[in-house]
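#struct-help
A.M.: can someone run this one for me? Single chain, 168 residues.
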Amino acid sequence: MNKGQRGFTLIEMLIVIAIIAILSAIVLTSVSSFQASARDTARVGNLKNIESYLELFYNKCGYYPGYQGGSSSCNATLQGWGDLSTLMANVGVTSQLPKDPSAGRSFCYGVSSDGNSYIVGTVLESSNSVLNNNGTGPSSTSSVTSLQILGNPTCGGNNSATTYWINS
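D.P.: on it. Structure tokens below:
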């Protein structure tokens, strides 16, 4: 570089751009894992709200949604999460059930054949020892009739590391 000229060389500029790109990649990766953890926390919070709505439904109708032997005002064939939400609105429990924070995903719900117990669950995005209820909830959906499982029928299968369950 001549003594009269000021500025950076092309190599110096490329090195600075490379360093900025590496730092950006590190930051974006860590932010992505925080976002997944936040969505998992929202899922668990939504399941707790759903649990409250299911108990309100039980207090009004005497059984949980999806039981086929109850009164006509509380009875409906449930084919998906939207049907459960509609039934809850028709009974006067809530106008809309919480949804999964990620598009294209839904919660799982099942009811026992006598209508006196239920299971509701979700698949977490990442293994999380704080949110995972490993050992405190059922590890499979065997306690409910497979016909009444809404959402993903396996809801994560038996992978207790990524499945969160609430049951009555």
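A.M.: thanks! Residues 10-61 form the longest helix (52 residues).
D.P.: also worth noting: The two ends are 77 Å apart (CA to CA).
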